[in-house]
Amino acid sequence: MPRTILLTGANGQVGRMLRPLLLQHYGTLVLSDRDEIVELADGESFRAAQLGDADAVSEICAGVDAIIHLGGQPFEASWDIVNESNIQGCYNLFEAARHQGVKRVVFASSNHAIGMYSRHRRIGADSKVRPDSRY
Questions:
Q1: DSSP-derived secondary structure letter, 112
Q2: Under a CB-based contact definition with an 8 Å cutoff, are residues 131 and 117 in contact?
Q3: CA–CA separation, 93 and 111 (whole Å)
Q4: Cβ atoms of 104 and 67 closer than 8 Å
Q5: Which of 40, 73, 75, 97 could lock onto 44 through a cystine, CB 3.0 to 4.6 A?
Q6: β-bridge mates for residue 5, sequence order
Q7: Three-state secondary structure along 7-68?
Q8: pTM score, two decimals?
Q9: Choosing from 26, 91, 117, 135, which is the catalytic residue?
């Protein structure tokens, strides 16, 4: 059965790569980003939102079956920007999903959370987190 999937951060590098596959698999995508996406495929729609705006985030979550959350400040920035986008914004999204009755949220984390290990070192689930930035 086709589902409506909300993709936050849809204009980012990963979002742009995932869109065709998600659309093929699910049939209907609601794309969201702080910057407008004007080139939409059949089955895609766009809803603008700043993640720090709880009301806007609630609106983008209305009527969707699941959320893939890729949105946020994608690189190091001031504390105010990182906090609003990545911390408060994530909270806003999870709360909006709960209030809108969205049953599934896929939250994509970042290598920056584990961060300060050599790229060639193999680490496991029990490795200590070593964030490399506020991001």
A1: G
A2: no
A3: 21
A4: yes
A5: 40
A6: 29, 66
A7: EECCCCHHHHHHHHHHHHHHEEEEEEECCCCCCCCCCEEEEECCCCCHHHHHHHHCCCCEEE
A8: 0.85
A9: 135
Comparing CA positions, the residue from 5, 48, 11, 47 lying closest to residue 28 is 5
CB atoms within 10 A of CB 92: 22
Measured CA to CA in angstroms, residue 60 lies from 44, 50, 101, 115 at distances of 13, 10, 13, 31
The answer for 83, left when phi > 0, alpha when psi is -120 to 50, beta otherwise, is alpha
The pLDDT value given to residue 128: 83
Residues 6+ apart with CB under 8 A from 93: 8, 51, 57, 61, 67, 69, 71, 105
Q: What is the maximal distance between C-alpha atoms in the chain?
A: 44
- H or E element at residue 5: strand 3-8
One-letter identity of residue 27: G
**Active-site residue, 117 included:** no
Q: Return d(Cα 60, Cα 70) in angstroms, integer.
A: 14
